Amino acid sequence: MALSDAFPAGPANDRITTTVLSAPFRARTYAAALYLALAFPLGIAYFVCTVVGLSLGLGLSVLLIGVPILAATVGGVVLVSIAERALARTLLGAEIEPPSWKVSEASGPLDGAVAVVTDLAVWGALAFVLSKLLVGVVGFTLITVVLSVGGSLAATPLYYDAPGTSVGLILPEPIRRELSLVVPWEQFEVGVSFILRLTSWEVSTLPGALAMSLVGVAALVVGLNALNAVGWVCARWAELTLGWTGTSTVDATDAS
């Protein structure tokens, strides 16, 4: 049996290859990048306000002052979840239907409090709001690495010969390592030894700069696909936590 029979090249493989290579040319890629970029400042604000509100509300609830603080915090979480639901739909293509809030069917303050505590939609919104900071940190780190590494390498031909600029692997001094394997044999020692020496490598010619630029383009393609993957995970997380009554049947390839 030929190797090509074991790993047939079909439409699915062609579709995956096209999806990966076309990432820099799709609007959804940059929509996901925008979503992740916004997640960092929004995540900080959500986390601080929610944690402070819950802490104050629970701590002061014995004095009854904390009850309106808790109510305002939960109300803020609900409002944020509504805005985040629209944001996930617009930028990530998430399919989220608005949940049925139990508190809207409450007949009194006590019934409303019980409805809030037992409503899975409220707990889902709270989990999403608190997790937004983690999403923001991951997104900010990924975007920074993709732009700084991939962008700088791709632009190497533009600045490699600028005065005072060094492009490449610049080491303060060469790195030298010796790898040895010695086996005792009667009264002798038989072995082999290898010496590895790593020195600085600097781009000084246009062909070298173009080669470095190709490496940067490849890094950008990989990084943008990573952004798409993180955006797909965020869309599924939003569907899970913000739309308990909705469906989440979006195909993974639609997040690209």
TrEMBL record:
Key words of the record: Membrane, Transmembrane, Transmembrane helix
TM annotation in the entry: 32-56, 62-83, 133-160, 206-227
Residues covered by the Putative sensor domain: 35-239
Pfam families: Sensor
Name of protein: Putative sensor domain-containing protein
